[in-house]
Amino acid sequence: MPASHFESVSVRNLVKTYHTFDALSDVSLDIAAGEFLSILGPSGSGKTTLLQVIGGFTGPTSGKVYFGDTDVTNLPPQKREIGVVFQNYALFPHLTVAENIAFPLKARRVGRADCEERVAQALRTVDMEGFGDRPIAKLSGGQKQRVALARAIVFEPRLILMDEPLSALDKNLREAMQLELRNLHKNLNATIIYVTHDQREALTMSDRIAVMNKGKLVQIDQPKALYRAPADHFVASFVGEATLLPVTRLGDRQIGLGGATLRTPDVTTDGKLFVALQADTILLCDDAEDDADSNYLNGTVRDLVYQGESLKADVVLDDGTAIACRIASHHYNLRSVPELGHRIRLKMHVEDTIVVPG
Amino acid sequence: MKKLQNLPLYGVVFAILFFLVFPIIVVVIMSFSDSRFLTFPPKVFSLRWYESYFLDPAWMRATRNSFVLAILTTILVVPVGTAAAYGAHMCKMAIMRHMQLLLLSPVIVPVIIIAAGLYMVYAQVGLLATKLGLVLAFATMNLPYVFISVLAGLRSYDMAQEDVARSLGVSRLAAFMKVTLPQIRPSVMTGALFAFIGALDETVISIFIAGGENQTLPSRMFMSLNDEIDPTIASISTVLISVSFALVILMSLRSPKKANG
């Protein structure tokens, strides 16, 4: 196994200001060589600006970018040795597939025989053998994606940047490509910075996820930690599709919700608190059940919506708070599905009772 | 039923087309006349007015001048106009709107005013009746065609391609030449064509600042109309019309093939 050409990336105190608007305010970030890091955030959070600065397409107002130990802050993109894949692929439509992939090699004056060999190799890597002579216009979305990828890796870059590369694909293809990208990342041992607004995509593929909001880095963590221990209200609502409800603090590990007392895994802070309820961590249970690891809630079923693989139940707790829970719609469950207007008892594991500061 | 309803529409379109094309047809037909004067319809047909055009050294020199000037103008105005359009497209500053208006002013301001202004400035700096002076004037007048055409081309072009090209290892200029230019080529060609034709029959400017050695075809045609009206003018017009049409047809034959590739 030859030493990888991929490098680590360090971003130090990046600030990018447009007029009076801070697109990036003091962002620092370290990405290890061979790491798959997703930058997750809503539109306008600064994630694309961060990618643009790392790619050298826009200069920061202040701050530094390092690849390995080299300061690249003032290098133009053509001197940075980065593979870039954009949302719309940005393939060159006037060139064939092979010519597109050969573009970075020609820019580096690679000899013809070597060039052909490496293009063929890149096409094999992305499973597109035999497509070299095709015009770009004759490719499907997924194929374009692969060609863009091949073009980004063929010249052995130090880093691969991706800006929502799968968002134009339909759901099934997108999920297949996510797994392929993950495998490719493993095989190449590539440093990948991946910008997305899709939390599931980020959770599926990343070693770590950096969550951004309003130009700031809010939290950077492994997917599981991010999901289990969101740093604040924003991360909890963005990463888990959670419903956030204001709760009152009753003790170090106790909060009040809907007339019930819930235990929490960690000591809660003072101040405004929210509980992040994930619809699929709340389960139906019997009236008699009483387990030391569970929190229990009582309420009335207000609405039941069939959503294919599951039923979504809207439940009103005793104090009028509305929550949602999800009941898998397979036949084992049919007998226990509650009816409209009936009282039900719900349980939630203490470890799933995530409380975040407002 | 549908066809009957559309009948008035067809009528209007046909009338407009006829109105546009009829003068041209008349000129072309008159150019083949045998008569001493411009008459329509001609009683006898001949090529004598083409002879009097092609065999006259003064007409030929004016023709050569016009084509040389038009070619030089195109060579100058295409890169400048393309660069201006690129700049206008990339620049996000608010002042750019006003700059664009400034660039388009040659087609907005009445030509006669520009011509008179040029005459006075050129008289001061000694550019009157020089090739340089004419090329500069024609370039100013025809810059908007290239500018607008290329700007329209860039608007439907995905600039991310240039970023990607740069990330793949080429300079910004090379990225433009290798990736952007091949894709906006139809717009550039259209702009160049209009600039060329525009420079070829730039009349008012020519009347003011062309002359002597550097007499242009349109200004000589205008002068000769003052002296005598003979069908040589019609034959020259026919030649010019043919050249313009040939260029436009050539362009439209080329472009659909490009679009499919």
UniProtKB/TrEMBL annotation, chain A:
Q: Which organism is it from?
A: Pseudooceanicola pacificus
Enzyme class, UniProt record, top EC level: translocase
Q: Name the Gene Ontology biological process terms.
A: putrescine transport
Which residues belong to any copy of the ABC transporter domain? 9-239
Tell me which SUPFAM superfamilies the record gives.
MOP-like, P-loop containing nucleoside triphosphate hydrolases
One GO molecular-function annotation for this sequence? ABC-type polyamine transporter activity
Catalysed reactions listed for this entry: ATP + H2O + polyamine-[polyamine-binding protein]Side 1 = ADP + phosphate + polyamineSide 2 + [polyamine-binding protein]Side 1
Stated name of the protein: Spermidine/putrescine import ATP-binding protein PotA
Which taxonomic lineage is given here? Answer: Bacteria, Pseudomonadati, Pseudomonadota, Alphaproteobacteria, Rhodobacterales
* Family classification: Belongs to the ABC transporter superfamily. Spermidine/putrescine importer (TC 3.A.1.11.1) family.
From TrEMBL, chain B:
Q: Where are the transmembrane segments?
A: 7-32, 67-89, 101-122, 134-154, 188-212, 232-253
Q: Which GO terms describe its biological process?
A: transmembrane transport
What's an example GO cellular component term for this entry?
plasma membrane
Q: Which CDD domains match?
A: TM_PBP2 (cd06261)
The residues covered by the ABC transmembrane type-1 domain are 63-251
- Give the main localization category: membrane
Tell me the membrane topology, using the record's own terms. Multi-pass membrane protein
| Protein name from the UniProt record | ABC transporter permease subunit
User: What organism does the record attribute this protein to?
Assistant: Pseudooceanicola pacificus
